[in-house]
């Protein structure tokens, strides 16, 4: 009775409102995990027979013959079942206990399958994880039943063409973890065992790194010698684990019997792929030539993927995928044996490793098609340095896209697991290190080193290895404390005088001194545009680079990115006198700019038809979004929606009302705050204290504006505008409310993405509340801090609002009428994501350099699993994306090129502008029809681009220099 009481009490602590399946807090899942670790049954309650007729019987009462055979396995503890219902977290999954469709879990992005893989990884690196004691619970899981389930699961799954087409990568990865043919994942076991040993005995770390990053057969003797050299310091447990590791390494490095491959796929005998497998397996020359073996295995890997859809039999597909996994193992093991001696051989190896990662699913086939012309051209006698640099860029892209494929598929569920099990953070890295992408990265690093030497364009980033994976995104220099953020950046409170290295920067990044990111998002996201605008040095780097920088976290460093993209990062004590001089005094205040307010018209307090405003009204009646879109409506009437404009004057009229709980109006409260801040500064109070005072006051103002009473006359005008201009009653048509301030798109300051946009709002009350929220958004901490950093009069910010009907675009993005990566004014840069609003929010968008002379280069494919659609009922709906098809098609790209030419020619003329720079255009496609949503000047930081120091660290490169491909490495 007491035991039952304790169980009930524990469940009440974990699940206080179990009837509502309320989500369990991570801290309580931690308790649950620890409880299972110390339980001799782990997450399981008991063992039962599960009979064919649905009956459940005791362990010693097997299913009788007259009702058919049954399977025996454990049942989950009640807490495990409850956690699955509440959080969709499934611990210790038993496959024989699981419905196939529920396990594939389409509605939750295949979460249960991915959790099974993470669970298996955690068990390998943490001595059984939740089964630390339960792994000895005999009969809980029956291996033969799990394998039989796996076979039936894949027969069911692989019968679906759409699954193979849309989820090739995930299906193939799952085969490494779900039992179906008696094989274990020996590579993962080897990595896990070496990690466990290094965690127990730190001196083993160097060998662990070697085994994880460059596994070779010679490592076996290194481990043996390590054990001998450290025998007096090793515990019996560590000594035993080293022996187990050696045995695993011998198993891993055992030569693959390629002659056995046809026996793995008997159903394919006589088919095109079956013949290719037999031809490969019977080629006796392969085992004597690492080069030929890697080439032929990679080609066959590629061919299996290309021809898999033609094979319609699920069991034959399964056999082909198993052969594919074995071929990846051959390439993975054999890559270390193929040591190129010349540049030509290195390019050959990179080419075939690129085909191998495509065949293995880390690249989509259309993505490889975009890279192939550069990576397959290694037969010439010589190439120019410029041509080889482009080959390096494309090869580097293949590595980055491959790693991004793993992250895109697993990051979401890994982040959820990390909240209660930090060890899960290593899962994605383990997947990448266990793939052929690891060896592709190493070969690309060798090419990068060679080209850096030839061009003298070398990075100098601390003492990091493989620095060729680091590349500058926008120029600038900074000095401050280095902060390395290895995990999520969502809860990081950034400081404007620190330099941050992120896995992925937060989309609402506040001002920082400098940034470097593994997942750069895209070149035209709001974060990237702000960094470029303010001259904040910004670079991309690899996961490995980030991990190697961890030891410098907290160090004061100098950081610079040159105009050509080479990167310097070094400790303060290594700075030259020239570099110290850059920070000898504060930036002069004159370098800030002033928001022009002389022409602002606050007397216009009527809701305007967007057709009646144009570029000349920017900064007078409204902000540039509305003014420029009104201009575009005149120029491209069929490509721009109708719209309403709530001008500056309406905002100011409302701000002149008495502020609840304060003396005077909202506007007086604001002006008094700035006056008091000036008085505090003049009296010697620190800048930090003054800023904290301002932020507290702004919070009070922001909350008050969100509750500000809207004038009846304004609401009536809005209702009239909806009916007459947008063609529907207020409350019946979904609209965007876009903040549009007078501080945006100034000559030297973009202000991109600093203020609020309300997405797809329908309900009348939500729209009215949204207007107040948009008015309040310039007073958020982030918006205020960016303004304070760059503007002389940040108090003179006036928001107008652009109201436009929602367009549920298939894909949307940004066009910059300049080649950002190429630096040429005549090229175009484009970033597009599926759905609405993705590219500007920093998603991993599909990016192109569209070339002036014709053609284009894919800079990055989209790597976001979810995108926003805009239902007519309002709000946003998340939909799942797959990557097997590109976002933009050829017709779209041609239309974008034509649009850019028209914009360059007509906009300056029709706005009577002397502006000669590039434009930043937001647009989208719905059913292949182009819609324009915004145009603004593309602002770059002239100080950073023209800095004498940055010019001094930018080597002059002779791109025409000829290099023989027979050059020895």
Automatic annotation (TrEMBL):
Cofactor: Mg(2+)
Keyword Magnesium among UniProt keywords: yes
Signal peptide: 1-21
InterPro entries: ATP_grasp_subdomain_1, PEP_synth, PPDK_AMP/ATP-bd
SUPFAM superfamilies noted in UniProt: Glutathione synthetase ATP-binding domain-like (SSF56059)
UniProt KW keywords: ATP-binding, Kinase, Magnesium, Metal-binding, Nucleotide-binding, Pyruvate, Signal, Transferase
Catalytic reaction(s) noted: pyruvate + ATP + H2O = phosphoenolpyruvate + AMP + phosphate + 2 H(+)
Name this polypeptide is given: Phosphoenolpyruvate synthase
